[in-house]
Structures are given as structure tokens and as C-alpha cells.
Amino acid sequence: MTRRDALLFVFVGFLIIGTGFTQSWNSALLILNMGLISAIMALGVNLQWGLAGLFNVGVMGFVALGGLATVITAMPANAEEWSVGGVRVLAGLLLGAGTVIAAIMVHQKLPAGRPRTLTMLATLIGGFFLFRFVFDGGVEAVEAVNPAATGYLGGLGLPILVAWPVGGLLAAGAAWIIGKTALGLRSDYLAIATLGIAEIIIAVMKNEDWLSRGVKNVVGLPRPTGVPYEIDLQEDAGFVETAAGLGLDPATASTLYVKLVYAALFAIVLIILLFLAQKALSSPWGRMMRAIRDNEVAAEAMGKDVTARHLQVFILGSAICGIAGAMMTTLDGQLTPTGYQPLRYTFLIWVMVIVGGSGNNFGSVLGGFLIWFLWVQVEPMGLALMQLITAGMSDGFWLKQHLIDSAAHMRLLTMGVVLLLVLRFSPRGLIPER
Amino acid sequence: MDFLNAIVAFANFVLVPGTAYGAQLALGALGVTLIYGILRFSNFAHGDTMAIGTMFVILITWGFQSVGISFGPLPTALLALPFGIVLTGLVLVGTDKVVYQFYRQRKVKPVVLVMVSLGVMFIMNGLTRFIIGPDDQRFADGERFIISARNFKVMTGLDEGLAIKTTQGITVVTAVIVVAILFWFLNKTRTGKSMRAYSDNEDLALLSGINPERVVLYTWLIVAALATVAGTLYGLDKSFKPFTYFQLLLPIFAAAIVGGLGNPLGAIAGGFVIAFSEVTVTYAFKKVATYVMPEALAPDGLLQLMSTDYKFAVSFSILIIVLLFKPTGLLKGQSV
């Protein structure tokens, strides 16, 4: 890191601290926490784009899988649902997976020709109906149990910190499937395939009530060990006393304290991942990846297996996004599938990577904080701007009302303009690759 | 008689909507495929280009409606369409001058252009929401049906009705006209031929004295027309919502890739393949089956292969299958 880079980090730090002084410390800490998570997502995307030149437009899907991981690891199992249909649902899923594997085996074992195609189709169609028959019955039974409160299988009841690596694993699994099909073809295909898988993951999470209650959301996710609940803090005499000593009322102090503990947890994860990413970048493996990125043909001629290396780095990057997704859901304390919007979870992360400096891990981290800060602050700034523009118009004039109402959409516009300006005038970003 | 009823039910719920949707997707995919063939990148802003074009049409339609201009039984939006196309064309050519031209002259890698198109998508999306808002807008007027279900039942004496909405009829007719003009243009006119030459072999085309900027200009204008028509037809048939148009990106790209990127005929074929698969897989066949099967065998389920919420999964699966077995698409596309 050079002096200039350090100054940039200090600048972003000032922006966040400034929010604390001018608005509230609560919002400053909120920005900090989400900034830490965004920085981790940006690290993952930077690994794929900066190091390998892979274009992943499905960040949202991997983030959502991380969120799903928190539910299936940390929520307690719902005994009644398991007894009425849990086994049947699992059997159905296994049958489905078995069908796909059988079809792949048919494709590999039999000689090419019409018999192979027909056998494969028969396996797939027969397997599909068998899967639906077993699976649907189970799902219906599970979802019928107490739908207002549970109606899903629940999880394993493990500590929620376990969900973070599990989220990474789930995302890695999805990335493997996508990578296997779309890597090795033209670069645009990967983009479109990832765009698709992200939409499908969200569709599954919205509709499969037995898995995570769909749009009814799972609330009340447990907190990581070491993160207290606000209400307990407020009843703790020692804490109230310390807060009073700092001149804070117990309610504010408890929310600030909880956010600080989260920030510390997230910072540890970020530092570990950043350390690993830096090591990877300067290792022989990292040099090989960059060589492949800069000239695939030459790297292939040197005996490097380009597709396999791409698959490797694609899975790694997606896993990091999955970890970040699990962390984010942990912070929210609930899983809301409708909250996943591609513009917010995919393209915003891209803006972070590009603005920060693709190919540079510190750049991605900086971009994560800076763009998240802008994303949060542009809306009030846009509103203020609109009020300034419309100040001269008379009340009740249609344009005035319309402009003020539309201020919320300034975000997309601003992010697009920022992205285009950086790509045009400073394509290497704030902290360029070295 | 029952068999006829089954056919009518199938036509009403699968064939007619599928054809209309297929025509809309085909027009969208044609735009994507043209840009891919000539400018050589996947334009992620295409869904939002459709949205912005439709927005212009809607605004002009509202203007016409407020001064009392109408198109008789046809939707007023058709009158507004040419104006919408001109405005969208201006936007696209402007975008090209301000944004894309710079990268084209530097001959950057296609993936950088894809990234740039992401930025354009952000801005277009933001502008659309800024001007017309993120909510649903309905702007269809005129006659609702060519044949309504009730009239059909009276006419034929069948139990099942076949309804054809005016918008569905207009979609198919307009799509046929647009595609005919497009192919005439590409195959018969001098400019069209130079566009195809440029798409086939850029260097050779430059050597023969084809002006690349002119080719690019015409491409954007054609794409503006295609996107606006596709978006307006989709909006008339269903409804206009900016986010839905962004989501259309996936089936449109799937259609273009399935048909073979860069191949206009393929885009049309791909559009119908995707549309019919989507509609067939998500349609509940219970009604059709009850007519065809004997009563004892009548199904108690909905006979729906997949819930409608998974329609994206259908286009995605087809896309994956094509990528696995025939990466250049059904009709041969470019493989740059």
C-alpha cells in the first residue's frame, strides 16, 4: 500500500466518522457494518474479475445462498414437520439428484446415437414424474403444519457462525454447476448463465416454503455467541452504569454496543480473507491466473489448463460471496427473499470493484466502503438537490411533486454515471493493480 | 366433441399466448443478436432500452388520448409507436456517441463493452423510473378482443371458449411486418448488405470501403426500432413495469443464444422455442386432460409440470442444455 492508498482509506474513514457527528452514530455504524460486508463481496468479485477476468453477473444468487445457509444451519429443527413429511421431501430431492446423475451416466456410458438420446430422455422424464410424486406429497404435508408460524423443516440448530462457512460451501456448489457448463465457452455465456442462476435461486427461495418459508420470511435467527441482545444489556446494571458514565442513555448505548461487536466480528473475517487474497495474488498461483487473464492462448501453450483454473477461481470467488451473504443475513437477524434485488446485490458490487480498482484487493475493500457510503447517502442528497431545484416552483405544481417523489431513483442514475465515468476516465480505478 | 374442446382449451391457454409471447421475445432477441453481430458485445442494457422506448410510447399515447386522438378499434399506442422509435433512436445514437464510440475506437475486449453496457443499463433504468415511476402502467385502449370466449362458444357450440385479444393479434401482425422489413433491408438494400458484410468480416469490409460509423449508426437505429416495438407490444399485451423489462433480459438472451448469437433467423426461432417451452411447462394441463381422458382416469392434480414462478428456470434450462450440447446455437451463430 502506498501513502496515497492509505490517504484514501483515511478519507473514507472520515466520511463514515463524519456521518457519526453530523447524523447519528447509529447510522455511521450501520454504514460501517454493511461496508465491511460489501468489502468482502467485492473481494470475491475481484478474485473472479480482477485476477481471472471472469464476468459473474449472479453475485445476488450466491449472496442469497449464504442467507439460506443461516436458516438451514442455525434455526432449530421443527420436529412435527420432520415427522409428517421430512423424510419424503429428502427422498424426493435424492430421487431428483439421482435422475440427473443417471442421465449423465447414460450420456457418458452409451455410444452416441439415437438410442442414447432416447434412453436419456426417458430417464429424465420418468425420473421427473417420480420426483414430483414423492416430493410433492412431502412438501404438502410439511407446509400444512402450522403455516402461520413455521411450516418449514427448520435447520440443524447449530451455532450461526457455522453458517458462514456453510454459506460459502453452498455458493461454491452452485458455482461449480455453472462453471462446469459455461466456462470454456465465450466470456459472455458465463455472464448470461450467472444472471440466470441468480434469478432461479431467488425464485426457489421465494416459492419453496418447506425450505425457508418463502416470502413469509424466517425471523428470529439466533445471534452469534458473544453478541448480546440489546434488552439484556439494558437490564445489566454494570452496562447501564458504564453507559451513563459515557453520557449515553442505556437504549442507545446497547444498540451501539451490539453493532460494535458485529463490526469486530466482520472485521476479523475481512482481515483473514484480505490476507489470504493478498497471499494468493503474489503466489505462483496468482501469477499464473494473471498470465491466463492477460493472454489465454499463450498460457495454454505453456501447458496451463485454462478452463480448470477458471473453474477453480470462479468457485473460490463465489464462495466468498456466499460467506458475505451469510454474514449479512446474520446481521439482519432474518431472511427476506424478496429483499434480494439484482441492482443492489449484483451491480452495486460491480461498481465497488471497478471504482476501487479491479485487480487490487485493497482497491476492492476501499470501493466496498466508499460505494456503500454513497449508496446510503445519495438518497438524502438527491432529495435535498430536488428540493433545491424545485424551491422556485409554486406548491402544487405537478412537476415539483413528481421531482420530489422521484428522488429515490437518483441512486441508480448516480451509480450508473459513477461506473461510466470511472470506466472512461480512470479504468484502473482508485487503487490500480500493481 | 371432447377432443375438439381439448384442442380449443390448449389453443386458448398455450398456443395463442405462446405465439404472442414468442413474437415479442423474437423481436427482443433480434435486437440483441444484431448488436452482437455488428458491435460484437452482449448488450445488457437491451431490456432497459425496451423499457425506455415503451416509456416514450406510453407518454405520447397519453398525450394523444388527452387531446382526443384515437385509432378506432386499435390501441392508440400504435399511432405513438413511430414517434417513440424516433426518440429511442436519438437516445441510442446519443449513447453510442457519448459512451460506446470511445471504446470501439480503442478496440477494447468485448467484456469491457459488456461492462459499459451495464453502466448504460443503470442509467436507462434510473431514467425510466425517474420519469414514469417504478409502478405498473396500463396503456392499452380500443377493442379488447378480436374474438371473445363467449362469442366463440356461441359461434361453435363448444364448451370451451377461445379468446384472442386484440393485442395478441396486433403483436403477431406487427412482428411479421417488422421482420419482413428487416430481412428485406438486410438482404436487398446496399446499407443492409454492408451491415452483413461488416458482421461477417470486419477487416474485409473496411478494405472494401464500407464506412464503419455508418454501419454502426444504422445498427443502433434498427435496434431502437426493434426494441421499441418489442417493448410496446409486450406492454400492450401484459403491462408495463420497468423491473419486468429488466427481467426479460434472461429469456431474450436465452432466445438469442439458443438460435445462435449473431444470426437473425436464429433469434426468431429461439424466441418461439423459449416462449412455447415456458408456456407449456408452466401451464396446468388438468382442463385439457379431463376432456381427452375417460372420466375414471381424470386427474386430481393440476398436471402442471412447474409452477409459473419458475418460468425463468425454463429459459435457463434450455440455455444450459444448448450450451452443453451445441454452444453455437441451433442455427449456426458466430463464435467469436
UniProtKB/TrEMBL annotation, chain A:
Keywords: Cell membrane, Membrane, Transmembrane, Transmembrane helix. The keyword Transmembrane helix applies. The chain crosses the membrane at residues 30-47, 54-75, 87-106, 118-135, 155-177, 189-205, 256-277, 311-331, 343-362, 369-389, 409-426. It is found in: Cell membrane. One of its GO terms (molecular function) is branched-chain amino acid transmembrane transporter activity. One of its GO terms (cellular component) is plasma membrane. It is a multi-pass membrane protein. The keyword Cell membrane applies. This is Amino acid/amide ABC transporter membrane protein 2, HAAT family.
From TrEMBL, chain B:
InterPro entries: ABC_transp_permease, BCAA_transport_permease. GO terms for biological process: D-alanine transmembrane transport; L-alanine transport; L-isoleucine import across plasma membrane. It is found in: Cell membrane. GO terms for cellular component: plasma membrane. Its main location: membrane. The keyword Transcription does not apply. The keyword Ribosomal protein does not apply. Keywords: Amino-acid transport, Cell inner membrane, Cell membrane, Membrane, Transmembrane, Transmembrane helix, Transport. GO terms for molecular function: L-isoleucine transmembrane transporter activity; L-leucine transmembrane transporter activity; L-phenylalanine transmembrane transporter activity; L-valine transmembrane transporter activity. The chain crosses the membrane at residues 20-39, 51-71, 77-99, 111-132, 168-186, 215-236, 305-325. Belongs to the binding-protein-dependent transport system permease family. LivHM subfamily. This is Amino acid/amide ABC transporter membrane protein 1, HAAT family. It comes from Litoreibacter ascidiaceicola.
